[in-house]
Design a protein that fits this description.
The protein has about 725 residues and is mostly helical. The protein is built from 28 helices and 2 strands. Helix 6 packs across helix 7.
């Protein structure tokens, strides 16, 4: 299924581009490339392939996977060939694993190696693309682009969150992993891989530049290389098969800025893609190489199994913690008929999903366990998504928004569920608690950095406009309040464990900061949902009422300080400017009117579509099709139940509501035991999600699915003495 989905996505994007440019013009442009230029492109891409194979061998050794050159060459070739048929990251990992597993390398090890390699590639590619953007568009455009992305705040929040995380707990395993990652030898090895990546990228840039100059000689080498850096970064994203489609879109944008026509830009991109495929074909005989070492190390199967467990635990630590860190940073990207939201943690979710897919494809085993009811529920949701997409396709035609935002977005959400479940499978209750703590401290760190930024504006240390909405780095205040609420649910769920451990004071300060942050967002839905969470905790947990009271007192003290500092200490003129820029906390803004008219209109559109087709709905993308405005913006239904009824009908609503209804019936309103932190977290997460979803589209909130993956996987008890069981 994944292969067919990959090919469908690639052909859909590539076909739309070719149709827009014109097949005849495209063929004429490709055929006009001089043979000498085509030969040079092939040689440059062959050099790139050789460097990529060497980089894989270095990366394997640097991450502790010691295999002979013959094995790494064969694995690299298998990954390249496999990526010609499946999404490039999935295909690469799958092809490598089929070769490396015979040498005793586990699936988590292959995922870690590939993820580490991709991380270094992304950093190098991002730096080079930024330089290319500077050459083409100028320094002001680069500065504006950086301000629109959360990369700089993320770099500031990360060490602060790490400090808070290790302040409330000093887990030896995580500290040892951190020391290993930042050791001088590790940094030197990463530098060597980055240098090799730089040289490999320069070969690809030269290939693009040769193709463009062969079609448009008026373009200078400097501009062609700069544009090639942007195209190469786009093509490396795991969104299509071997970069097809995405590469052509980026080529039209980047080379078009140099005055190259769409036909010539697409022709250059297609030519490079065809030559790259040809070079990979030439490298396929490497698959016939026989390993020069035995299939398994001489130390035996026991050592192989222990090595696999080591990599699995390391993968769980990195995927779980880094996902929790980067979930709070996201940007929006334009697609053909709307916007999609991209999160910095999405690549980690994709890696977690790769781990599941590779394990299933290669060994027919799952690296994680989830309750059967939850698996059936997720499978049911996936089925209605596919059925609704097919319904919408035949009724309205292909919708980029429905496909990219809803269908592919659903796969990303599965990755977050897999990430949370994998943490529990490998690290048990300790891993669940540590990821929950990471979510909490990261939310507090974001609040601290974002608040400091607003104070600096108030004191005129920084001079830039800030949105009136207190939205953190999520791009939306309701999204930020939702993220804070997930952290608050975990803070309440683990309060009892903190009380037993006699470490509740710092926990109370963190919870108070979350409550203040929820108030600052001004999200009415967030405040109502937060009130419900606190009320449920106070009702079903009488022992937690003192903790909740102290939390409220801490939040009130923080609020007074936050209001008083800029009001009384900042200069009068600065305070006025800060108030206009939204830097000073104003409680009256919490109940200020919002875009109620647009929200009501979206609900009316959804209900109207539901009344037309109440049983199966109008199909995925129907609301977006009905709600397109003059500027092309999509009107999203601001009610998750109404959206489900509109596009999935009563049949879909029954599937979606089945799990919550079953859980409520099973518990029969009996609160879980205070020591069952996972059960408490599930109850609070479902309760606030139900309230929040009534007035907002929150079905695709990544942090909620990560949290549900963590807490639901904790309900599974393995036959190994309860090592992964829930807290008791």
């Amino acid at each position: 299924m994944l292969r067919f989905l990959s090919i469908f996505v690639t052909l859909a994007i590539l076909g739309a581009i070719v149709w827009h440019v014109g097949p005849a013009d495209l063929w004429q442009a490709i055929s006009s490339v001089p043979p000498a230029a085509a030969a040079g492109i092939v040689l440059l891409l062959a050099a790139n392939l050789a460097l990529v194979l060497v980089r894989l061998h270095w990366t394997l050794r640097h991450t502790g996977v010691h295999v002979p050159w013959s094995v790494s060459l064969r694995a690299g070739a298998a990954g390249l060939v496999s990526s010609l048929f499946v999404f490039n990251l999935f295909g690469t990992i799958l092809g490598r694993h089929y070769t490396l597993r015979a040498y005793g390398v586990s699936a988590p090890a292959v995922v870690l190696v590939s993820g580490y390699e991709r991380f270094v590639m992304a950093l190098v590619g991002l730096v080079l693309a930024t330089l290319g953007f500077h050459v083409i568009f100028g320094a002001d455009a680069v500065r504006s682009a950086i301000e629109r992305t959360p990369l700089v705040p993320a770099a500031i929040v990360l060490p602060l969150a790490l400090a808070l995380s290790f302040a409330i707990a000093r887990p030896q395993r995580e500290l040892a992993l951190l020391r290993r990652l930042v050791s001088p030898s590790a940094l030197m090895r990463a530098g060597a891989i980055a240098g090799l990546t730089l040289v490999a990228n320069l070969a690809v840039f030269a290939a693009y530049a040769a193709a463009v100059r062969g079609l448009a000689p008026q373009v200078g080498w400097e501009g062609a290389l700069a544009a090639a850096a942007i195209v190469t970064l786009a093509a490396s994203m795991p969104l299509s098969v071997n970069g097809w489609g995405i590469r052509e879109l980026a080529a039209v944008y980047a080379f078009g800025a140099l005055g190259v026509g769409p036909a010539e830009a697409v022709a250059a991109s297609v030519l490079v893609g065809l030559c790259a495929t040809l070079v990979v074909g030439f490298a396929s005989p490497l698959l016939l190489i026989r390993p020069t070492a035995p299939a398994r190390p001489e130390t035996g199967d026991a050592a192989v199994a222990e090595d696999g467990r080591h990599f699995a635990r390391a993968a769980a630590l990195l995927l779980g913690h880094l996902s929790a860190y980067f979930l709070f940073f996201q940007v929006q990207a334009r697609i053909a008929d709307g916007w999609i939201t991209l999160n910095l943690a999405d690549p980690l979710a994709v890696l977690a999903l790769c781990l599941v897919v590779v394990s299933l494809a290669a060994t027919r085993t799952m690296p994680l366990r989830l309750p059967r009811a939850f698996v059936l529920w997720v499978a049911g949701i996936g089925t209605i998504l596919l059925a609704a997409f097919a319904h919408g396709y035949f009724a309205y035609g292909f919708s980029d928004w429905a496909f990219a935002n809803r269908l592919v977005g659903g796969l990303i959400l599965l990755g977050y569920v897999a990430c949370g479940a994998f943490v529990c499978a490998e690290l048990g209750a300790h891993g669940r608690r540590r990821v929950a703590e990471t979510l909490i401290v990261t939310a507090v760190a974001v609040l601290a950095v974002y608040s400091l930024e607003r104070l600096l504006v108030a004191f005129e240390v920084m001079d830039h406009h800030m949105t009136t909405n207190f939205q953190g780095y999520s791009g939306n205040r309701n999204t930020f309040s939702f993220q804070i609420l997930v952290g608050l649910c975990f803070a309440i769920a683990y309060a009892e464990a903190r009380r037993r451990a006699r470490s509740l004071a710092g926990w109370t300060v963190l919870a108070g900061a979350l409550v203040l942050g929820l108030w600052q967002t001004g999200s009415i839905a967030g405040l109502l949902a937060g009130g419900l969470v606190v009320a449920l905790a106070a009702c079903f947990r009488p022992a937690q009422r003192p903790f909740l009271a102290r939390t409220a007192a801490v939040a009130l003290a923080f609020a007074v300080a936050w209001w008083a500092i800029p009001t009384y200490l900042a200069p009068a003129r600065s305070a006025k400017v800060a108030t206009e820029k939204g830097a000073i906390f104003d409680p009256s803004e919490v109940l200020a009117g919002t875009s109620t008219e647009g929200r009501l209109r979206s609900v009316e559109v959804g209900l109207d579509l539901f009344m037309r087709s109440p049983l199966v709905g109008a199909g995925l993308g129907a609301v977006a099709r009905q709600g397109l405005g003059i500027d092309g913006a999509i009107l999203v239904v601001h009610s998750t139940p109404v959206w489900i009824l509109a596009e999935f009908g009563l049949a879909g609503a029954v599937v979606v509501a089945s799990l919550p209804v079953w859980l409520v019936w099973r518990r029969r309103m009996r609160p879980p035991d205070p020591r069952e932190t996972a059960a408490t977290a599930v109850a609070l997460l479902l309760a606030f999600f139900g309230v929040f979803s009534l007035v907002h589209d929150v079905a695709y909130q990544r942090i909620w699915w990560l949290a549900m993956g963590i807490v639901t996987a904790s309900a599974v008890r393995f036959a190994d003495g309860g090592r992964h069981a829930a807290d008791t």
